[in-house]
Write a structure and sequence with these properties.
The chain is α/β, with parallel strands linked by helices. The protein is built from 23 helices and 14 strands. Helix content is 53%, strand content 12%.
């Protein structure tokens, strides 16, 4: 089912073609938007002004000619547009017919995908997100990448794309030489697989090894030899490396399980065998310049703060590779081997320049054809504490993500206990888990990702305002209405058609019909806060409908029950796309 926005755009394009064939206006030039206030109708077409400038006519004259040629009915000749009005210099306000909106709601209610068309041809989207460093704790800085990346993956999966979720973990390089050299002396039984340990202890050893690496020349030499041994495929060194990776992976999986995130690990080590070939290929194509012994690529338009050319180093003077080499190899592999149609990388905003350079080099090298493959760097801001500074523990340490998540669940449990919800112990634990994790996810996703946000358990767990708890409560309220009426919704679906009469019913119907438009927009610009805002407004529209329109015992009871059910379906699906769970009772 086409979105209302697309249907109106097509109708106005046809009307303009009929009224002014000489203008040759394409669909992308038609400006149709949802109205911000009900007094301006449901939608507006703002094309008359621009068209008037082209045609050398008055905007209102152009608008009148467009309206005269506009087909107001659906393809099966049923009324779609109830009223058209020219406002101001030439804005066309559009009021849709209630019957048209109701018919679309019937489709949304009955359809598995809520009337949203799946992509017609299978397209592959590769999303690179989360990306912790092996042998280090995941901290609050990884939270945004994981949550935003998962929500985008869920969106594209719902729309029918073939989504590859990749965890580009930092599992290769000098750090492992340091750690293995240190552990061979301090904990050989761990590296031999005779004893077990956890990530917390691993992090402690890593810090000790880093200190020794910086201060002890002999240890530094041993650590560097371990790096050579790992890269050379030494059996014992690789066994030690695998043990370290397994310990880290186990800790990360606990977090992914808490967050209900699926992700396939494909770290830097995966691309390591491809690096030499990438460098050789770039050299062969004449893109490489030697600067101070390092192999660099200088790109036009990329300069440092002093205005000097900014090099992308792809091989250091000592022969080592770096992030740029690995990211180029990863991009090349995802395009050539994975056959990606779209590649999305999620990192903090500080890496925006890095990815702009990566994409440009890939284009110059012929790996990336922007007309065939879309690449996006999706940057995000910082998580801040109440003091407006980077979020840390009271001791000044970076907050461990696992501690933050369990703290959210604990806070949610305390809140539920204070509300005297009469839940049994198991239900209380389950609801606290859902509420706590939802709160953290939604607090992140509700704000524009490019900005920073202040972390506050108190604010994110509120049952009013733009919070996950408010959305959950709205969903639970709908279930309460259905239980109170006590009728079989599936039977009502077969015998009742939705009828829209009250302004609050129509306003809710309009918003429900705009779910697909919202998903389309998020898929284009990759800003999940648009969906969060949509769901908050949906809950607000439903509450207004519930306030103004009696359901139980009313003459329109069954129609309004179906309107409630449609709202619940859209609300639940929208929350699932954001990675939020729902509960049936609270």
């Amino acid at each position: 089912m086409k979105t209302i926005l697309n249907e109106l755009t097509e109708k106005f394009q046809q009307a303009i073609a009929a009224a002014f064939p000489e203008a040759n206006v394409t669909a992308d030039k038609i400006e149709v938007t949802a109205s911000t206030q009900v007094k301006f109708g449901h939608y507006q077409c703002n094309s008359a002004m621009k068209l008037a400038a082209i045609l050398k006519k008055k905007p209102r004259e152009v608008a009148e000619a467009m309206i005269a040629k506009l087909d107001r009915n659906t393809t099966d000749h049923k009324p779609m547009i109830a009223q058209l009005e020219i406002a101001g210099p030439g804005f066309i306000n559009i009021t849709l017919a209630p019957e048209f909106l109701a018919a679309r709601l019937q489709t949304i209610l009955q359809d598995k995908f809520l009337g949203i068309d799946q992509v017609k041809t299978q397209r592959r989207v590769v999303i690179d997100f989360s990306s912790p460093n092996t042998a280090k704790e995941m901290h609050v800085g990884h939270l945004r990448s994981t949550i935003i990346g998962d929500s985008l993956a869920r969106l594209f999966e719902f729309l029918g794309y073939d989504v590859l979720r990749l965890n580009h973990v930092g599992d290769w390089g000098t750090a492992f030489g340091m750690l293995i050299a240190h552990m061979k002396e301090q904990a050989p039984e761990i590296l031999q697989g005779k004893q077990q340990t956890d990530l917390t202890q691993l992090v402690k050893w890593y810090r000790e090894s880093k200190k020794r690496f910086d201060e002890d020349a002999e240890f530094k030499k041993r650590a560097q030899l371990e790096v050579v041994a790992i890269q050379g495929g030494d059996v014992n060194s690789l066994k030690a490396w695998h043990i370290i990776c397994d310990i880290s992976r186990l800790a990360y999986q606990e977090i992914y399980d808490l967050l209900d995130v699926r992700i396939t690990e494909r770290g830097e080590s995966f691309y390591n065998p491809l690096l030499a070939d990438v460098v050789a290929d770039l050299e062969k194509k004449g893109l490489v310049t030697i600067s101070d012994g390092a192999k660099c690529i200088f790109l036009e338009g990329f300069t440092n703060r002093e205005g000097e050319p900014l090099p992308m180093i792809i091989q250091k003077s000592d022969g080592g590779y770096n992030y740029s080499t690995t990211d180029l190899a990863a991009l090349r592999h995802r395009i050539i081997e994975e056959k990606a149609d779209r590649i999305i990388n999620l990192t903090d905003a500080g890496q925006s320049l890095h990815f702009a350079m990566i994409f440009k080099v890939a284009e110059l090298a012929g790996y990336l054809d922007p007309s065939k493959v879309t690449v996006n760097h999706v940057p995000f801001g910082l998580v801040l504490g109440p003091d407006g500074k980077k979020f840390k523990t009271r001791s000044g340490e970076t907050e461990r993500l696992i501690d933050l998540l369990y703290a959210a669940i604990h806070h949610a449990k305390e809140l539920l206990e204070k509300r005297e919800t009469n839940m049994d112990a198991a239900q209380l634990e389950m609801t606290a888990h859902v509420l706590g994790i939802n709160a953290i996810k939604y607090a992140d996703l509700a704000g524009q990702r490019s900005g920073d946000y202040v972390f506050s358990y108190e604010r994110m767990l509120r049952f009013e305002g733009n919070t996950a708890a408010f959305l959950m409560y709205s969903y639970v309220r709908i279930n309460g209405i259905k239980r109170k009426v006590g009728l079989d919704i599936e039977k009502i679906k077969t015998s009742t058609h939705i009828k829209l009469q009250h302004p609050s019913e129509i306003a809710l119907a309009i918003h429900l019909n705009q779910f697909s438009e919202t998903l389309d927009q998020v898929a284009k610009d990759l800003f999940p806060h648009r969906l969060a805002e949509y769901l908050y407004n949906l809950a607000e529209h439903f509450n207004a409908f519930f306030r103004d329109c009696r359901v139980e015992g009313d003459a329109e009871q069954n129609s309004r029950l179906l309107l409630c059910e449609t709202t619940a379906k859209v609300l639940r699906q929208g929350m699932e796309i954001l990675g939020l769970k729902v509960v049936e009772r609270m």
